[in-house]
Automatic annotation (TrEMBL):
It comes from the Bacteria. Keywords: Isoprene biosynthesis, Nucleotidyltransferase, Transferase. The record marks R20, K27 as: Transition state stabilizer. Catalyzes the formation of 4-diphosphocytidyl-2-C-methyl-D-erythritol from CTP and 2-C-methyl-D-erythritol 4-phosphate (MEP). SUPFAM superfamilies: Nucleotide-diphospho-sugar transferases (SSF53448). Gene3D superfamilies: Spore Coat Polysaccharide Biosynthesis Protein SpsA, Chain A (3.90.550.10). Pathway: Isoprenoid biosynthesis; isopentenyl diphosphate biosynthesis via DXP pathway; isopentenyl diphosphate from 1-deoxy-D-xylulose 5-phosphate: step 2/6. It catalyses: 2-C-methyl-D-erythritol 4-phosphate + CTP + H(+) = 4-CDP-2-C-methyl-D-erythritol + diphosphate. It comes from Roseateles asaccharophilus. This is 2-C-methyl-D-erythritol 4-phosphate cytidylyltransferase. PROSITE patterns: ISPD. It holds the Pfam family IspD. Its EC number is 2.7.7.60. NCBIfam families: ispD (TIGR00453).
Length: 237
């Protein structure tokens, strides 16, 4: 019997409302460097040859996608839920309905991390494709870490030596990540925490601070500067 080649699917949860961004609209549709944020995100994933297909998971009420990303080749599912974890679970079910199976890898990547670079995705795949668990892009914490109370007063300085800031993509086999998210529910703020709750240890793969999540109003201008700089041709070439 011949075994099927390993497949890598990207799943982009894009059903959030972007409340913290203050944009007054879902932030994934805010234009940055000439395109909606979501278009940059999908383009970065499409530039990774090992990714078989990308699935974008929208809110059932989304009426912006087709006009914002005309001609987009990604699969689309209006299967988003009230939490990011529910949206990802809806996307996993959609992947199954399109033929994906337990052993396929799924790279879950936030629509809001629009500065993703294909080489970071390749580094993640290289590090995890032979791993029994999977892993995630992350960045060692470089600042001194404080715990604070509701009044904004420091309550403790936290040892940062073993702390990493989790990013996306987060890459796990479909069967494992689905079981993990079903068990943890909406409390899972990322896929890795759900997998950890099963007693497993995902691989941390260092990426870049530039792979930040556009979250606050000021993040749009920073993303604009970085994306614009990245698209300026190198005068030396
Ligand atoms: N119910 C949800 C909530 C979030 N997301 C997605 O998960 C990613 C990370 O979430 P976050 O940055 O928190 O986005 P929002 O939930 O839109 O932002 P906010 O929490 O400020 O409302 C985003 O791409 C967002 O669209 C989703 O698909 N479904
Ligand atoms: C998945 C994530 O981006 C990893 O840092 C993060 O947990 C998403 O959190 P949010 O509160 O949904 O933005």
């Amino acid at each position: 019997m011949t075994s099927r080649p390993t497949r890598f699917f990207a799943l982009v949860p894009a059903a959030g409302i972007g409340e913290r961004s203050g944009a007054g609209m879902p932030k994934q549709y805010v234009f940055i460097a000439g395109q909606p944020m979501l278009a940059h995100t999908v383009a970065a994933l499409a530039a990774v040859p090992r990714i078989t297909q990308t699935l974008v998971v929208l809110s059932p009420a989304d009426d912006r996608f087709e006009a914002a990303l005309p001609g987009c080749k990604a699969w689309v599912a209006r299967a988003g839920g009230a939490s990011r974890a529910e949206t990802v679970l809806g996307g996993l079910a959609e992947l199954r309905s399109r033929g994906a199976t337990d052993g396929d890898w799924v790279l879950v990547h936030d629509a809001a991390r629009c500065l993703l670079r294909p080489e970071w995705v390749d580094a993640l795949i290289d590090a995890c494709a032979d791993d029994a668990v999977g892993g995630l892009l992350a960045q060692p914490v470089a600042d001194t870490l404080k715990a604070g109370d509701a009044q904004g007063r420091v309550t403790a300085t936290v040892d940062r030596r073993d702390k990493w800031a989790a990013q996306t993509p987060q890459m796990f086999r479909l069967g494992l990540v689905e079981r993990a998210l079903q068990a943890m529910g909406a409390a899972a703020t990322d896929e890795a925490s759900a997998v950890e709750a099963l007693g497993l240890a995902p691989q941390l793969v260092r990426a870049s601070m530039a792979n930040f999540k556009v979250t606050w109003p000021e993040d749009f201008a920073l993303a604009e500067r970085l994306l614009t700089a990245a698209s300026v041709p190198d005068p030396a070439r």
